[in-house]
Amino acid sequence: MKRFMCLHNLIFSTILLFVVTFSIAVFTAYAELHQNSLTVDATDRENWAYLNLLEGKVVDIEDAATSLKWDLGFKRTAVIVNGGISGSGEAEAQVLDDISFEDVLEAPEGDYVSDTDQIATFARGDGWYTYTGPPNHWVLPNDKVYVLRSAAGNYAKLRFIGYYENNETKEGSGLVSIEYVLQDDGTRNFFESDPADVVARQKLTTTWAELKQN
Length: 214
Fold this sequence. Notes:
Elements: H1 2-30, E1 33-41, E2 49-52, E3 57-59, E4 72-75, E5 78-81, E6 92-96, E7 129-131, E8 139-141, E9 145-149, E10 155-166, E11 171-183, H2 195-213
Helix pairs in contact: 1-2
């Protein structure tokens, strides 16, 4: 009987350890910093192009008012966020002054704004671009860094880097290029770290100690 109980405890402990280790591994793999540069085809003057930052691509949306699958919408120079009057998500943003994109290592805690019926988030102030007027009629991205909270509540830093298919010759307008870094675990940091690995090792050590006691 005693040998049976020992065998039973060993099997139980092994299964428990496997479950805990697997759960930690999933958590560690999930926390990831997404760095991406992409171009959104915003040439359609009637329909929005909806971007999912986590997937890093334009997605098809049936009902933008209720969907949480998009973060930003693009239509020519207009840019909206999935929040406020534009959507049901948590998306909102703010502009950071006098700092480079690379030097933004953490998202601020407050002062975010979303779209209203008076003005879109990225149109506030002097907006994300400058229109040169005649004779060239160019659209030039302003040297700004935005911090965005996505529809799902994750943080990203973002900047606009172009509006043309060829940004040197200014040919092919309506193609908006952006660069962004997205933290997908809900924290506000924009740098590589291994907090999940540390937590995993701590949990694993605790689990081993508990198993030994049993």
